[in-house]
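Subject: Interface between my chains keeps coming out wrong

I've been trying for a while to get a sensible model of this assembly. When I model each chain on its own everything looks fine, but I need the whole thing in one frame so I can look at the contacts. Pasting all components below, labels as-is. Any help appreciated, I'm running out of ideas.
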Amino acid sequence: MDFNGFKQIVIEKCAALGIEEYELYYQSGASTSVSAFQHEINQFTGTTEGGVCFRCIAGGKMGYASTEALTAQQAELIVEKAADNASVLEAEEQVFLCQGGQEYVPLEERAYEMPTTEELVSTVLATQEKLYAADSAVIDGCQTQGVAESSEIAIYNSKGLDLHSKTNLSGLVVVAVVSDGQEMANDFQIKLGKLDAIDADKLTAEAVKCAKGKLGGEVAPTGQYPVVFSPEAMSDLLDTYAGIFSSRAAQKGLSKLAGKEGEMIASSIVTLVDDPFHPQAPMPRNFDAEGSPAYKKNLIENGVFQTLLYNLKTAAVDGRKTTGNAYKSDYASAVGISPFTMYLAAGDMTEEQLLIKAGNGVYINSLGGLHAGANTVSGDFSLQSAGFMIEDGRKTRAVKSFTVAGNFYEVLKNITAVASNLELPGMARFGSPSVLVEGLSIAGK
Amino acid sequence: MISREICRKVLQKAVSTGGDYAEIFAENTIKYNVAMIANKVESISDAVIAGAAVRVYKGMRSVMASTVDTSESGLLRCAAQAAEALGQGTAGIDIVLKERTFGDIHPVRIVPSSVANREKVAILKEGYFAAKEYSEAITQVTGNLMDVDHNILIANTEGLYTQDRQIRTRIAISAVAEINGETQTGSCAPGRRMGLEMFDSVDPKAVGIHAAKQAVTMAGAGYCPAGVMPVAIDNGFGGVIFHEACGHSLEASSVAYGRSQFVGKLGQKIANEKVTAIDDGTIPNAWGSINIDDEGTPAQKNVLIENGVLKSYMVDKFNGRRMGMASTGNARRESYAYTPTSRMTNTYIAPGTDKNEDIIASIEYGLYAKEMGGGSVNPVTGEFNFAVNEGYMVRNGKICEPVRGASLVGKGSEIIQNIDMVGSVLEMGQGMCGSSSGSVPTNVGQPMIRVSSITVGGR
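Reply #2:
Try treating it as a single job with all components included. I did that and got this:
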């Protein structure tokens, strides 16, 4: 059955069980992915997914149950399960459903037609030819992939909320593999947008350039150096540590930012923004996972900490309003907290000026093992890195297989220069310009 | 779940445009997770995952379509979508499905999805409060009890029609300790391919104490120094070094496409002769075990490296075509919505003959990595990393003070030459391994080993 039919059964079941406060969160999506290997399409995937998460307040607690099977039996079962799950919860924080009838920032219309399978196939094959043609070092192993995805979210609750959003996304992925006869290196690039608006020449050239840059790299020398993080590397670091801006983490003693609003927590040249409507945000929405209005805000302004990110429950704990940052990692997960599109605001130096300011140090454009080598509670990190040495203010030889170690809270304070080259790489959920950070430890040879 | 007759019709549809092989994978899964923080039960998530995917091969091409609509008409639509994407051609296969059973070598006594919330909460609380009460330095504890009841059906044009039920249970406790303003974490997360009887052999209290003790030890530790040094890596989750440095590069998903440091190296010596490494999906009730893989091939014990010589890759049916090799029973997918590919199951370095005390005694200045965290690798270059969750300095053959914040990095093909001592006591650790076919449960394992030289990322 469809979501509306399923919803009706749930509404009736809630009435029968005397459940007055409840919400249905429906997510569905369809995606197509086509990839090419050795000049031929070798893989095609088409998926359709969809599921419903039901939650209700019973005895002052929020119980959840979810299903992908939209049947009458499941509609009744998830109501019973959610009520039963609520009955064993103990957390004392008051729980809320979002009030209907609020005002939302109107979304700019920028939906575009999804590419057809034929368009995906021809673009992917053409891009692969560009990859082989880009450089004689390119070898078999290269892959190009085209993706198209549409996603729909609906939230309906007993407090008059009835929201709906549909977004489309398409993009091109390029994996370049190069060899110098001695060793291999590779690079992955992704660009989102309307397929015919993506500059495939630029994307393949960038992938090949980055892959070739990794050939012949040596291990960096051990020591303390000024480090310049590329936009990609710094975006990855922001992604990894975004959780410290969660009010839940602060309230549970898992973030050191608890109670620091109004204090200098970063260098005065640091401004950190969360913008749900950033032009590059791939799937913009004007409401969060609870249905609260989303809005743009500064988390850090000129080094001063402005606000944690809140949902309805954590906002009530701190006696303030939600920042509209309720988040679900998938339709079935409990409501948590996340930024929409978080980025470090651009400064006014060029990257070249940043390198001159660094003098002698290390330029890092790739970080690895972020899920393992970064402790989000202490802020400590020790991460696999690759990049270039900086000598006399210029990028020189390639270096790899070394680590950069430090503490994220210290990094915020030790940013001594911010470049103007703001980028939102990959899925564009995090972004940064190049930044110069003093006093990090490099472990190599 | 889906009858043989419907499967036959759907497969027939799938190969109607000239596919030479087709497969249906359907699942019905219950995923449960109860979470505690700040001494309270905070949330329960409880989800049903139900859907199916149809895959069709034609030579080196693979097409997959998936759907949540598992009715006959939904499945036929899904098959038609796959057939259409494959292109033009005519059907050439007659399909006769025979039901096959492969037995269950991972018996389950207590099915978690049938147990009331309160019983599960009681188990979790045992572990949770053991951590919380371990020391006054413990400032926060989080705990999760998770179980999965994964029912799969696989039918293919080779005539296979089979089903399997995979039940897994896991407890995870993380503790935060603060000593003199220094905050550190510790964790422990054992899991088994069994039901709640897992807790007859795994004491939840011991799990909590393990996590808390590690947090307290690390909160009192100084930073690990940086540099190149010998490292002794203990058993259990220490096996993540092989998983990252070598395992991923032996998966057909890398090898078949030339994107691996070990392409064309079968029969060659790629590791130190002390190293024998095995991927074994048949270990009864082990976290990474399966009866059949997600293409319906029975699980196997595969010797990957024997005394340093590369013996086998880990192969799935589709990538096996490109390699001219048969499946080794390693095809895995997180769910029907992912295209399966070759993945690890329970992967470990086999026991050797060295004694742990001799390994430590052999190190003049180095690191003893007692507990490892996760890691990652680029299979093309073999450059890998993983985190040391609990480490100690070794001086003059003695284990000395604890150190924190270390990670180990290197190049797989070089580091496995440097594994020059292998202890005799094998243990496994549990992890969720993420790759193109999603997140799947895998065991890593080894006895204590010595890596004669590796870069230690500290400060």
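Reply #3:
Confirming on my end. Chain B touches chain A through 78 residues (CB under 8 Å).
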